Amino acid sequence: MRPITFAIILIGLVSLVLILTSTNVFSLLPEQHKFINIDNPSNDIDCVACHSRIQAELDSSVWHGNFSCEDCHRFEGTGISFAEGGSPATSGEEAHAAYTPRCLDCHDSDGATVAGEYAKPARAFCDDNYGCEYSAHRALVMKANESSMSVGENEACLVCHTNYSCELDYTYFEGISYNLSGWSFTSFGDSGTRDYTANWNKSGAKHVFLSLDKIDCTKCHENIYDALVTGTPKVNEDYLTHSPIEIHTSGTGDTDWNTNNPWPFGGPNYHDRYHYIPKADRATGVNSSYCYECHNVNKYANENLADKTTYDLGDVTSDTYSTQVHCAEALWCQTCHGNGKTKVVIDNPEQLNTGHSGTNFVDDVTSDYARTFQGDICMGCHEAAVHPSDAQAICTRCHELGNADVYIESEPCGYATNI
Amino acid sequence: MINLKQMFLIIAVLSAIAVAMTHTVTLFSGQHSWYDLSGSGSNVPCLKCHEDIGDELIAGGVHTSIDCECCHRTSKMVGYAASEAGQAEPGQGAHSASTEECMLCHNGRRMPETNFTHYYLNSSSCLQCHNPVPAILAAAAGGFGLTPDLCDTGTKAAHRSFVLEAMIADDSLMAGANEACIACHTTIKANISFNVSTKAKITVNNVYNDSYSYWAVTEITPTNYIPYTEVKE
Fold it and tell me: Using CB atoms, which residue from B158, B190, B214 is nearest to A97?
């Protein structure tokens, strides 16, 4: 056979083989006819194929990390009918593949069991109307429910409980001024507005749930943190407001108005100040646990048994609504220091009968003035840094006569004059 | 004179062309032998040219015994080329086949509410879609608010906007909601571009007069969108 003949025959054979075996039109979108069998009783369509990032987030989450997507997104406790394959198939109604759950679908008042674990009720927020009015953040939860960004109240849950970041743009008063004469108000007014932005920047991942101790009050309330830690620096003593933690040093040693001064130091009426943090410890000492000292006495008492005894926190708890709130209580100084309360105002034993103990002063402040001003009204004198240096000689002006002329600025500034 | 080396070269080139030209090859092979079109249904063996698709269907877990024509020659909106009882009908919208919506069969609707037509189907194929006739095997794809079932509100469906977007998109890759249905229900590859908010912006105003105050949360808006891509293999 001549090579050319051989070549032609070979070409013919090869072409024939090719034609017979490769008659296929190449599908433009391969596998669009390869349907996934959905006969199994549980979901057979792999959510993670399109949502691998969410799985990765869950893998590093403190809570819910062991759940499958379906545990939450095809949760059966709500009565939603999801699409389900099989013979016969169940048609979906409110949802097909998945729904976006409300956190409260599981964390409602009776909780739920998911993947063999009990989901606890979200205290207070699981109650009608999201619990009592003393439960802080209730307005946030209500607004979240109203807003369309996410289902239900989820926006509120997410910003605190996950790595979803948040920015808070606050507007409130800048300062107040008032005059006191014989422990009675002769004038009161507010001035200016303050815009304050707090940023709690996290990774942004909504499926990374935080352990409870990582929920840091001071991030969203940075103005309060600043008020307690930085305030407005002054030469001798900083203006630090929000809670009476700063005592002016005019005397000597720890027995005077010093930062480590309990009333009277080591003496018979030894009076440790509960919410008092020595200057050196402030930057670290002002943290969520510190906030709970006042804003959730019940929680603080349970977590700090020594303090519970020292400060009689069992009784203080019953002065508060702390057992009825979600995480924090909206309170007043009067909540603990009003007449009849466990920590009713007492005088400094070194200067007996010179303060407002035995009067209705604290209760009157509460009933006459808006809650937002309460702390600053008290701090006008109790932010002891404001002791006017030239008026120190006449302690009696305040301490006996109950006269004061105060201007004090809101957090984070705390700048105050009291002449 | 061609030597052996040159010969292999020619074979190689021709093979390459043959492979690259499978469409043409397909269309021309057997062009002189005609299929008898007079029986009911489509008598053109789709699989001859679309064998890969037949393989996919059989390998899958759904529609394994449904003929190509059931999904590609059943839209009332399309007139297909056909030859019934010796009468030749020219195609109008499509010649042999059209792309159809999954919802043509899965919308849970009955005539005259549907665009489904039995006209071009094989008379013996009834049990592929009915068992028994007229009970419909194709379950209504409920949960997107697209079926006549009054309970099918779809209000909670996480992927509802995926489906609705697939339906309205102008530059539609596929008919109806098919992009969404196929993305989930088949092993097709897909690139999905997400753009998600990583932060909420919350506006909080203190509302007050001398004797009364409260905190009003006036706005919650999502911000800090971050794009990322998921690749479904």
Answer: B158
Q: What is the pLDDT of residues A204-219, one digit of tens each?
A: 999 999 999 999 999 9
What is the ipTM score, two decimals?
Answer: 0.88
pLDDT digits (tens, 9 = 90+) for B39-74: 555 556 888 888 889 888 988 889 998 999 899 988
**Residue A217 belongs to domain spanning:** 169-197+206-418
- Partners of residue B232 in chain A, C-beta under 8 Å: 49-50
CB neighbour class for A213 (10 Å; exposed up to 12, middle 13-18, buried from 19): exposed
Nearest neighbour of B53 by CB, restricted to A11, A33, A49? A33
Q: B46 CB near a chain A CB, below 8 Å?
A: no
Is residue A359 within 8 A of residue A183, CB to CB? The reply is yes
| Domain end residue (candidates: A102, A121, A140) | A121
Spatial contact of B82 and B89, defined as CB atoms under 8 Å apart: yes
Residues of chain B found within 8 Å of residue A375, distances taken between Cβ atoms: none
A286 assigned to some structural domain: yes
Predicted TM-score of the model (pTM): 0.86
> A100 and B142: CB-CB below 8 Å?
no
- DSSP-derived secondary structure letter, A336: H
Rounded to an integer, the average pLDDT of B15-33 is: 31
CB contact under 8 A, B199 and A164: yes
Burial status of residue B1 (CB atoms within 10 A of its CB: 0-12, 13-18, 19 or more): exposed
> Does any CB of chain B come closer than 8 Å to the CB of residue A159?
yes
CA distance B54 to B182: 16
Q: Is A332 on the interface with B (CB under 8 A)?
A: no
Q: What is the mean pLDDT of the segment spanning B97-118?
A: 87
**Are both A251 and A331 inside the same structural domain?**
yes
Q: Give the integer Cα–Cα distance in Å for A372 and A365.
A: 11
> Structurally, how many domains does chain B consist of?
2
Measured between CB atoms, does B107 come within 8 Å of chain A?
no
How do strand B190-208 and strand A165-181 relate by DSSP bridges?
A: parallel
Task: For residue B83, name the pLDDT band (cuts at 50, 70, 90).
Answer: low
Residues in chain A closer than 8 A to B143 (CB atoms): 81-83, 91-97
Contacts of B199 in chain A (CB under 8 A): 164-167, 201, 204
Q: Which of residues 116-155 of A touch B (CB under 8 A)?
A: 139-140, 142-144, 147, 149, 155
pLDDT score of A17 more than 80: no
Over its C-alpha atoms, chain A yields an Rg (Å, rounded) of: 33
Best mean pLDDT range from A3-7, A265-269, A399-403, B127-131: B127-131
CB atoms inside a 10 Å sphere around CB A224: 20
User: Highest-confidence range of A80-89, B54-63, B172-181, B197-206, by mean pLDDT?
Assistant: B197-206
Residue B232, domain extent: 190-233
Q: Which chain B residues touch A80 with a CB distance below 8 Å?
A: 156
